[in-house]
Automatic annotation (TrEMBL):
Residue span of region Disordered: 330-349
InterPro entries reported in the protein's UniProt record: Peripla_BP_I, SBP_2_dom
Domain Periplasmic binding protein per the UniProt entry, residue ranges: 44-304
Keyword annotations from UniProtKB, A to Z: Signal
Keyword set includes Protein transport: no
GO cellular component: cell envelope
GO molecular function list: carbohydrate binding
Full protein name: ABC transporter substrate-binding protein
Compartment(s): Cell envelope
Signal peptide feature range: 1-27
Pfam families: Peripla_BP_4
Length: 349
């Protein structure tokens, strides 16, 4: 079949576009070519997951400023108060108000799936911050490697306890991928590397009062507890320190009665507790970067950009998920050795 001049022109243009697209897709930003329609404009609806956590309150404080830096207009934020039904209602409200992209942090990562698929059908992209939905289409998940949190906590406590003793673990909600990732990795690491350590797993649903009650009970039945793993310092730090103070166990690390504590979050209060010798370590998940890149990817989604896999220019790696992509941000272990590092977000406030 002979190709006419017009057809040849179209074919040539298509090949040129494909070449440019291929080049952009390999950029260090891990952002592929823009899809037709969309120019990065529109408002972003943001829902905050809760107001009873110092970590999430810090994240909320970063959102307005990061929106200005990224160059997006906000609708909200609303607050779903750790209630998935309220989250669904809030998302509907944000869409009604004109949101062209949504940034959320679902605490129940199983129940949000149908709403995500509904939004996808409406061509409203969703960025999930900190948590990875179990199902349902997402444009991007912005989080750190939560399995690494559990492994780092295990290795730290295992070494401090020389592989022997008893540890209590405040598990996050197992309805959340974060709670499952941290719990599973902590258990696998302890079983493989430190079989001489007994771990008491205490479900908390991310509730500080449940952690406090569990610690009080466990110290009564097992007064020789020598380690604590708090999966969320933002909700567990104060209750834990209160119990230890009441029992006169809040002592320096060189005191034989000291209970070694490793946490997750990296809030300023944890860093100060490390300086005081009240706790020993935390894994710093970046509240500032969660806000920044949650909004950044929302803007990319509105522009129709297709994410590319691989390293980014902000020190992370984008991976492909069955239901979208994930931007895996770095989350360092913080101890007395590096607690004053000015790069830690907890030292910037």
């Amino acid at each position: 079949m002979t190709i006419g001049a017009t057809a040849r022109g179209v074919l040539g243009l298509s090949m040129a576009v494909a070449l440019v697209a291929s080049t952009v897709a390999c950029s260090k930003d891990s952002v592929g070519p823009a899809a037709p329609g969309g120019g990065g404009t529109g408002s972003v609806g943001v829902d905050l997951p809760r107001a009873d956590s110092d970590f999430w309150n810090a994240y909320a404080s970063y959102v307005p400023g990061k929106a200005g830096e990224v160059g997006v207009e906000l609708i909200g934020p609303t607050n779903s108060q750790n209630d998935v039904q309220k989250l669904i209602s809030n998302v509907d409200s944000l869409v009604t108000q004109g949101a062209k992209a949504i940034v959320i942090a679902p605490q129940d990562t199983g129940a949000i799936g149908p709403k995500l698929d509904e939004l996808a059908q409406k061509k409203i992209p969703v960025v999930s911050v900190d948590t990875r939905p179990d199902s349902g289409e997402v444009y991007m998940v912005v989080r750190a490697d939560n399995r690494a949190y559990g492994t780092k906590a295990c290795e730290f406590l295992g070494e401090k306890l020389a592989g022997k003793g008893k540890v209590i673990e405040f598990q996050g909600a197992l309805s959340s991928i974060n709670g499952r990732d941290r719990s599973e990795a902590f258990k696998q690491c302890m079983t493989a590397k430190f079989p001489g350590i007994t771990v008491f797993e205490e479900p908390t649903e991310w509730d500080g009062s449940k952690a406090q009650a569990a610690l009080e009970t466990r110290l009564s039945t097992d007064p020789d507890i020598k380690g604590v793993y708090m999966q969320a310092g933002g909700v567990f730090l104060d209750p834990t320190l209160q119990v230890l103070k009441q029992r006169r166990l809040l002592v320096p690390p060189d005191d034989p009665r000291h209970i070694f504590i490793v946490s997750n979050d990296g809030i300023p209060q944890e860093l100060e507790a490390i300086r005081k010798g009240e706790i020993d370590a935390t894994v710093s998940q970046p509240a500032d970067a969660y806000a920044q890149y949650g909004l950044y990817w929302a803007k990319q989604a509105m522009a129709g950009a297709v994410p590319g896999e691989g390293p980014t220019d902000h020190g992370s790696t984008v991976i492909k998920l069955p239901n979208g992509y994930e931007d895996q941000l770095p989350a360092p272990l913080v101890t007395r050795d590096n607690v004053d590092d000015p790069a830690l977000w907890g030292n910037k406030k």
